[in-house]
Amino acid sequence: MTIDAGTYKNFFANWPGAVAVITCRGTDGSPQGFTASSFISLSLDPTLVLFAIKKTARSLPHFDAAEGFGVNALKEGHAELSNRFATPGEDKFAGVPYAEGPHTAAPLLQDAWGRMECRTVHKYDGGDHVIFVGEVLSVDMEEADPLVYHRRRYRRLAD
After folding, report:
1. CATH match of 19-154 with 3.10.20.310
2. What is the pTM of this model?
3. 53 - beta bridge partners?
C-alpha cells in the first residue's frame, strides 16, 4: 500500500512538538546545528534519546564524524532562533551565546530552557534520513514554557 506524501505530511503537521536545536562540533572545529522536527526520548535505562537528520543536510557529515551532540530545547519566543537554525546558512551561531559541553564540545545554547549533551552510540538508515541514538551524559534545565510547533506554525501552550 502506498501512502500519499501530502497526507503523510499533513498528519505530522497536526502532531504538535517541542522545538529543539541539535548541535555538534564540526569536522573543522566550527559549531554546527539545525532545528530538529524529530527528537524523542528513547530509553530510561540506559538513558537514550534519538533524532533524525536528512541525508542531504549540509551538516550531516559533521554529525556523522562527531563524538556526540547537544540538544537545546527552545523557549516560547524563540521562533526567530528556530528559523535561523532551520535555514541553510553560513554562520547560524553569530551572536548566539553558547558554551561547549564538557564531554563532546557540542555547543549548548545558553538561552535554551533545557540542554543535554549526548554521546552518539548508534546510527541507523532511516529512508531519506539518518537516525542518531545518543546516550545522555548531562542534563541542565530551567522552568520555562517551550516553543511548540503545530500545523506549520509556532504555538503557545495553554492550560
Report:
1. no
2. 0.94
3. 130
